[in-house]
Amino acid sequence: MTVTVRFAPSPTGRIHIGNARTALFNWLFALNNKGRFIQRFDDTDIARSKQEFADAILYDLHWLGIFPDATEYQSRRFEIYDAAVERLKAAGVLYACYETPEELDLRRKVRRTRGLPPVYGREALALTTEQVAEYQADGRRPHWRFLLPNFSGDPLQPERTEIRWDDLVRGEEMVDLASLSDPVLVREDGTYLYTLPSVVDDMEMGVSHVIRGDDHVTNTGVQIALFKALGAEPPVFGHHNLLTTVSGEGLSKRTGALSIESLREDGIEPMAVASLAVLVGTSENVAAAHDLTELAGHFDPAATSKSSSKFDPAELFVLNRVLLHHMPFDEARDRLMVLGISGEQAEPFWLAVRGNLDRLADAVAWWRVLREGPREKPDFSDDDRDFLHQALDLLPEEPWNGTIWKDWTGKIREATGRKGKALFMPLRLALTGLPSGPELADLLPLMGREGTLARRP
Ligand code: GLU
Question: Would you tell me how many other CB atoms lie within 10 Å of the CB of residue 318?
Fold first, then answer.
């Protein structure tokens, strides 16, 4: 059987790092098992779902290196869900309910005061034909609940019914169906809640492994029952822990917190995002993987912690620096070109500056410094100015070889008696305008003799 996974966000906003974790867990699982990855948009909520969000999610996934084998939209599959509804009705496990939200609320309160669990008491099963006719005459339309298989004879007498599965992440899991309300599958207006379309699609699309956040553990109990009611073998389930902000808040698509888009705009490399999104909250060391194949080698769903993990964006910058410091020119070339960095100097320039970058785009500032000189002319003491004049007078003629920096500073040392910081700092300031940065030995050849002399204070 081909391993088939799916990533199933609702296209109601931009995806954040927590959603990326789910997408990547699925993608890496598929990679490691030569499987298929289906991108499924759970857009049954027509009012809140937008095509522009679906497009943006696909863009974010591509940026991370995820290229789905298929893309599906639930909003185009209503007929398939309608057919499943008919089957459930025919099997007598989908029943009509007429309560308003206020009535349900009141009933829950009453149950609580009686010490009963605040679950739906299946009152609709006891409605007489006259009562139903009355509701209908009042213009009430039914919503439809799935009768959970948690009773032996009388549905009004639910009994403890354990649904068990071996979770890919969490190991042995169990949900007691008697602790749950019969879920509403279809609303009054005929629209679908998430539960049924998800199960029907997982069946129809041959999904073998459902990997998602642990906020869905309880749903899994219900969904396993629904798979069985529809005559299907449930897939394997895995529920990973959720990420929170450093202050412990959950992430939300709506607030845009830690959205992939904002991280990209901040200049974070996709592999920094992917490495942290996958490895945080697992027993693996968080280190920057060079690509998703390498990351897949460190991915083991069972190594994921069961409690939620804090996600610290500062760690992204640490990983970003590591990735940039080792990035070969071939990988950076096109992106540098877009930033206006090209020509035969582009490669030696990249190799000279990459070790100093927080973001790739920071290379532009260094490129300008090399081309145009320091942004602001530094203020030198008379002493330093004399020293710099003397130093520049000693600059060897071109052509230069690989030891030009060493040769030149050797001469300066000899002639001026300066060494260490007293020698290097004024040179660095005169050449770059900044007190720190890439090795001057690498920058000097890029400035050339003329460029260097033009920096005379
Ligand atoms: N649309 C659901 C969500 O975003 C999908 C859950 C699932 O993977 O089944 O939470």
Answer: 14
Q: What is the DSSP string of 420-439?
A: HHHHHHHHHHHHHSSSS-S-
Among 27, 37, 42, name the best residue to mutate to test ligand 1's pocket (greatest count of ligand atoms within 8 A of Cβ): 42
For the 4-71+196-243 domain, the top CATH level (class) is: alpha beta
Percent of residues, the chain, with pLDDT higher than 70: 99
> The pTM is what?
0.93
Residues contacting ligand 1 via CB (< 6 Å)? 8-10, 42, 194, 198, 212, 216
The predicted model gives 394-401 an average pLDDT of: 96
- The rounded Cα 70 to chain-centroid distance in angstroms is 19
pLDDT of residue 284: 87
Q: How far, in Å, is the centroid of ligand 1 from the Cα of 175? A: 18
**Cα-to-centroid distance, 339 and ligand 1 (Å):** 38
Q: Which tens digit of pLDDT belongs to each residue from 176-221? A: 999 999 999 999 999 999 999 999 999 999 999 999 999 999 999 9
pLDDT attached to residue 254: 67
Statement: residue 256 has pLDDT above 70: no
Q: Which CATH superfamily is domain 82-185 in?
A: Glutamyl-tRNA Synthetase; Domain 3 (3.90.800.10)
Can you name the CATH fold of 382-453?
A: Arc Repressor Mutant, subunit A (1.10.10)
Distance between CA atoms of 192 and 143, rounded to whole angstroms?
Answer: 10
Q: Which of 10, 14, 24, 205 to mutate to test the pocket of ligand 1 (most atoms within 8 A of CB)?
A: 10
